[in-house]
Amino acid sequence: MEDGELEKILEEVSESFILETKGKGVEIISHFDTDGITSAAIMVQALKRLDKKFSLKIVKGLNRKIIDSVDKEKIVLFLDLASGSLKEIKESNLKKVFIIDHHELNKEDIPENVKMVNPELSKKEKISSSGLTYLFCKKIDETNKESAKLAILGMVGDTLEKEIDKLNNRILDDGKILRKRGLLIYPSTRPLNKVLEFSSNPFIPGVTGNPEGVLEVLRESGISLENGKYKNLIDLSNEEMERLVTSIALRSPGKKDKDLIGDLFLINFFGKLEDAREISAKINACSREGRPEVALGFCLESFGFKKKADSIHAKYRQELVSGIRQANEQKKFIGKGYVIINAKDCIKDTMIGTISSIIANSKTYENGTVIIGMSYDGKKKIKVSGRNVGRTGRNLRELLSKVMESFNGEVGGHHSAAGCVIEREDEEEFIEKIKRQLELEIIRIAEKSSA
Question: Can you give the pTM of this predicted structure?
Answer without folding.
Answer: 0.79
